[in-house]
Amino acid sequence: MKRDKAGNIFRTRLTATLLLVLLPAMMHAQDSITLDYCYRQAEKNYPLRQQTEMLGNSSTLKLGNLNKNYLPQFAVNGGASLQSDVTAVAIDLPKGISVPLMPVLSKDWYKLTLDVNQVIYDGQVTHYQKQVEAFNLKADQKGVEIELYKLKDRINQIFFGIILLKQNESLLKSNRERIEAKLAEVQSGIRNGASLEMNADILQAELVRLDQQQTETRMDRTASYQMLSELISSRVSENTSLSLPQVTLPGTAFEDNRLENELFNIERSKVGLMRNMVTTKWNPKIFAYGQAGYGRPNLNMLDDNFKPWWLFGAKLTWSPWNWNQNKNEKQILSIQNDILRSQQETFDKNLKISSQKDLSEVMKYTELLSQDEQIITLRVKISKTASSQMDNGVISPSDYVSRVNEETQARLNLEIHKIQLIKAKLSYLYTLGKL
Fold this sequence. Notes:
The chain is an alpha+beta fold. It has one domain: Outer membrane efflux proteins (OEP), CATH 1.20.1600.
């Protein structure tokens, strides 16, 4: 009993210890998310993802229907008719020879049949139809993949938009604190008669303007978090921090890995298959058929009684000449293939143009970052001088506010350019299909 009790106490303590160790990590995981996490969540939960399975199920049913082309086809037919005349036998015989008794047919006819048709050889039509359906499935599923890939660009816009807004908020807050500190100095000077009340009003107006900017930024950030939550189908609170990814470009050589190229290749392969499929219209088709019926008259047209009958046979159909329709269809499909090739080349050229622009953006922000540090150093120096000059009455509060705003803008530009550099690298990878 003592051992069991000691064991329970040990397990309880171990569980508590593990919770204490793991709980901070779990909370940290919930308080921060990465860009890659957003990609995976969006692809997994986006409603369009369900279409992949739906398309597969639909294609399976279509192939099942095509396979049924090889099974016998049954049809029940019936009919009734009333006609003005029927077949009669009129024979002129010499006098003295009696006319044989001939049957008289009724003018109302009835027929009920069960017809059976069985394909023996359909000229490979079904075989090609199944291959076309396989290409249709590949094209549709690739189209879903393309749309899901486009989600990454939308996520990038919102993700980096939030980070930029947060940076702006942080700098606005810092700017406000500096203005508040300077306002406190001016108000002290007013009480001592060393400063004009107008100076305080100027600083107070600047605080109100900063409050407006903070309100706009906060509302935009809230909306962006809501959009991100909806896009990844997972709630992201406004307290969640977004981790900037470390992005390294593999190189600057153009290499097109976009899914659209795979879709173009699928479509062109399908057109080539359909061009070969045209030949099946020249192929002969062989069928077996049978019919079982009941009615009046039956196969013996001179028998006016209701009777059953049956028949079996085979049929060959062949159209060796169709006024060059097959040749024209092949030419049409060749033109479609040329159109697809032209569209693919156009897409590839536009992609090269976009990649060159993205690469130029990467180089631009890299250069700007090296200059931002120099600008900030100078702006900090100017702001300190402006603060001293305002204290000594050399410049007005408006001039001081302008100098502070210029320093804030320089710091904001640095943060913006850092984020834009990462975003430009991701845009380059996205354009090449490597994201």
